[in-house]
Amino acid sequence: MDPITDKDQFIAEVKGGITPYLDIEGAVKAADFYVRAFGATIAAAVPPDETGRTMHVHLYLNGGSLMLSDPYPEYAPGGTGKPRGFNLTLQVDDIEAVFGRAVAEGCTVVMPVETMFWGARYGQVRDPFGVLWAFNQHI
Length: 139
Description:
Blueprint: E1 21-23, H1 27-38, E2 41-45, E3 57-61, E4 64-69, E5 88-91, H2 95-104, E6 108-116, E7 120-126, E8 132-138
Parallel strand pairs: 1-4, 5-8
Antiparallel strand pairs: 2-3, 3-4, 6-7, 7-8
């Protein structure tokens, strides 16, 4: 990832109606992975500090925004940096291609793509950072 170093560039337009913000160990590595695996683009990023942590990465993904930061427990006690209790779902037009690319880049298949009772093709993967991703394509 090439972080944007001009302070005026740390903020990018937020897209979509809801913006997930992941507290995730290795946010810069996760951002690079999401670029490769899911076709995300980096909209803004604060350079990593002297310990290698970054406080903000803003990605554009599937028409929306996704934000990441490394955990800073000294400023927000209780955070573990391990995602839990959610998944991120992408509505896609070509589930086989998107799912296949995610797996090729290192995601683990949790649920193979199948035709579901609600009239869609659906599958799930877990990325190397522990995040569960679901893909849904209407039939």
